[in-house]
Specification:
Number of strands of chain B: 0
Oligomer: heterotrimer
Largest sheet of chain B: none
Shape of chain C: globular
Distance between the termini of chain C: 68 Å
Number of domains of chain B: 2
Structural class of chain C: mainly alpha
Distance between the termini of chain B: 66 Å
Strand content of chain C: under 5%
CATH architecture of the largest domain in chain B: Up-down Bundle
Structural class of chain B: mainly alpha
Strand content of chain B: under 5%
CATH topology of the largest domain in chain B: Four Helix Bundle (Hemerythrin (Met), subunit A)
Strand order of the largest sheet of chain C: 1-2
Order of helices and strands of chain C: HHHEEHHHHHHHHHHHH
Number of strands of chain C: 2
Chains: A mainly alpha (100), B mainly alpha (174), C mainly alpha (382)
Radius of gyration of chain B: 21 Å
Order of helices and strands of chain B: HHHHHHH
Largest sheet of chain C: 2 strands, antiparallel
Largest interface: A-B, 69 and 83 residues
């Protein structure tokens, strides 16, 4: 058996990479994918804990996280498509209309 | 070194490597494919952790639906090669790297001090291993303890669906 | 320990047999498709190479191997090379959870049966759905990586089509799953010993069949490669063995969905006297698959291709609601455990679906409602 802490360490590394992606990249789609990576690393931790405590609630939570991710992707990608239609770009640096 | 540990380390390397690949790819389509690879390896971890049902849902939902949507949008917009214009926040990447190193350092320090503890309890025999995380047991947990959240997620999906339709509707058609 | 090695060797042997059967099946599907289509169109079909043209697949294979392989100059080379592989692999592995026949009793000594079929997962149906959802990548990426307008359009069409029809496919499967009370393909087969699910779930069987045709991009849903509109769609730029891989994937997927259809609705290896003579199970299983394949070829030579917007409308407005109604009715019937109630609700569901279907058909064909709809459409259509 692999110790649970190994999975948690891996989950932390993946989460960090996701955060780094959100902060460094300027392409809205890549930022969005990084958010998915973070959600996924949280899922990994959930399932590892579910195994550790022999409690299926962790797995059910992963199920809910996936539903939220699916709904979020549908709306988020629709937003990106709409932004692209009006600005011809999806770089988050160019979305500065609200800047005073 | 047992087989499981070697497999774990290999898959972990693939997972981290694909996440890094996603971060540094110039081409958004390559990024999306790296992320698919990452999700697939995480599905393997779910299998190790006694969650076959969740692993299959992971592949179906993430790799099969969400990432295909991403690819679809990238290809549709022709947005695979976005010029990285001179950014308005030049201090952000160095700060990100610094914070990431600090965060990972803290975690590393914790493992250094606490050691590698917490082996998960062994499953009693093949039958118990099969029952844990099986569709039946997940279904029972989902529909007994978590009925209300389940119903609320259905509402959430409905809202998401309507939102997507309204957002992308052609305004000229009204 | 010794037992584990025996199991490993058993798996390897089964996997090799499965691959070999699928490859041979692919080769002779191409021959059978041309022969059956010729029969239906009153032609002769291939008859030059070998008796009845039986060596035609070999000749085709040799031709494809010796063809020049082109890679477009501006193509994304790595993805262009990977795409055919990504398409073929799911086609081969999807059948891993389908049992080919009844378990061989006492093969390894008393109480140790040899299951026929590579693995019997308790998440078997989920495995099939997840592998099927991976299959869309190969086609989409192949189209995109070719750097060709027609190919990209074909790839995008296939992505949209496969995602849309996956919903109907996934929901139509829920009915048999509820009746069997399990996701394991072996349990589903065993649950059909008294009566095949096609008689209890006719609507689900119909939806599954149509959605499966769309999933494997077969006529009348071969939109991604509609040659009149897109030259050849996603595989326009592919030649030689890489094209052969796409071709192979299409035919192996046909065999795959036929096997899954057989297992879910036609009772798998169930049939008369199968418990007395277990080898009959394999015969029944493949007999049913071949029947289903011939039906697919028949469909292809009968029906014209759908228009793209109608295809999407059909998937979202007919198949998906129909599958939902089916799930609802099955759940209600199972909950009440009343056959008559279930039958009445089932008939009601079928009636609703037929009403929707004919409503759509009338709208698009003619009649006052249709003309109004068309007039409204012609103003807005781009």
């Amino acid at each position: 058996m692999i110790p649970t802490s190994y999975y948690l360490a891996l989950s932390a590394v993946l989460f960090t990479l996701g955060v780094a992606g959100v902060l460094t990249r300027r392409n809205a789609i890549i930022i969005f994918m990084s958010v998915e990576l973070m959600l996924n690393s949280a899922n990994l931790a959930f399932v590892a804990f579910a195994r550790q405590f022999m409690d299926l609630s962790g797995q059910v939570f992963v199920f809910f996280v996936m539903v939220v991710a699916a709904a979020e992707v549908a709306v988020g990608l629709a937003l990106i498509v709409t932004i692209f239609r009006s600005k011809q770009s999806i770089s988050v640096d160019e979305l500065n209309q609200l800047k005073g | 070194m047992n087989v499981e540990l070697v497999l774990f380390i290999l898959l972990a390397l693939v997972a981290v490597g694909s996440a890094i690949g996603m971060l540094f790819s110039r081409n958004a389509v390559h990024s999306a494919l790296f992320l698919v690879l990452n999700f697939a390896t995480v599905a393997f971890f779910f299998l190790f952790l006694g969650a076959p049902f969740i692993a299959m849902v992971q592949v179906t939902v993430y790799a099969g639906a969400i990432m295909v949507l991403f690819l679809f949008v990238i290809m549709l917009l022709g947005a695979e090669l976005l010029r990285q214009a001179n950014t308005v926040l030049p201090w952000q990447p160095p700060l990100t790297i610094f914070l990431a190193v600090v965060f990972l350092g803290v975690i590393g320090l914790y493992f250094w001090n606490a050691g590698v503890a917490g082996l998960p309890p062994a499953l009693a025999g093949d039958e118990a291993a099969r029952a844990f995380g099986s569709p039946q047991s997940i279904g029972l947990t989902l529909f007994q303890e978590y009925v209300l959240p389940f119903e609320i997620t259905s509402f959430l999906l409905l809202v998401g669906m309507i939102g997507a339709v309204v957002l992308t509707r052609d305004e000229k058609k009204q | 320990m010794a037992m584990e090695w025996v199991r490993l060797i058993e798996w390897i042997i089964k996997a090799v047999i499965s691959t070999a059967v699928l490859l041979a099946g692919f080769a002779y599907m191409t021959w059978a498709e041309r022969k059956v289509a010729a029969l239906l169109q009153q032609r002769i079909g291939p008859n030059r190479v070998g008796p009845f043209g039986l060596l035609q697949p070999v000749a085709d294979g040799i031709k494809l191997i010796f063809k020049e392989e082109l890679i477009p100059a501006q193509a994304d080379k790595l993805i262009f090379l990977l795409a055919p592989v990504i398409t073929v692999v799911p086609a081969f592995i999807i059948l891993a959870v389908v049992p080919w026949g009844p378990p061989v009793k006492d093969f390894y000594g008393p109480g140790q049966d040899l299951p026929l079929g590579i693995a019997n997962l308790n998440v078997g149906m989920m495995y099939i759905l997840s592998v099927a959802s991976i299959a869309v990548y190969g086609v989409t990426l192949g189209g995109w990586a070719s750097n060709n307008k027609y190919a990209t359009l074909g790839g995008l069409r296939s992505a949209a089509q496969m995602i849309s029809y996956e919903l109907g496919l996934g929901l139509s499967v829920v009915g048999p799953l509820m009746l069997a009370g399990s996701m394991s393909m072996l349990d589903i087969t065993n649950a059909q010993a008294p009566v095949w699910f096609v008689f209890l779930q006719p609507l689900a069987a119909l939806i599954f069949y149509i959605a499966a045709l769309a999933e494997v991009n077969r006529a009348p849903f071969d939109m991604p490669e509609a040659e009149q509109e897109l030259t050849a769609g996603y595989h326009t730029e592919y030649s030689g063995m890489k094209f052969a891989l796409f071709f192979m994937a299409e035919y192996i997927k046909m065999i795959g969905v036929s096997a899954i259809f057989t297992t879910l609705f036609l009772g798998g290896w169930q049939g008369p006297f199968v418990y007395e003579f277990p080898w009959l199970g394999i015969v029944y299983f493949w007999g049913k698959i071949i029947a289903s394949l011939v039906f697919m070829i028949w469909t292809r030579s009968t029906l014209p291709r759908l228009r793209y917007d109608r295809l999407m409308a059909f998937g979202w407005k007919v198949l998906l609601p129909a599958a939902l109604v089916n799930v609802l009715v099955t759940a209600a019937a199972l909950l009440g455990n009343q056959v008559i109630l279930g039958a009445v609700l089932g008939a009601l569901g079928v009636a609703v679906v037929i009403a929707i279907f004919f409503g759509l058909a009338r709208r698009s064909r003619g009649g006052p409602a249709g003309r109004r709809a068309r007039a409204a459409q012609s103003e807005t259509v781009v």
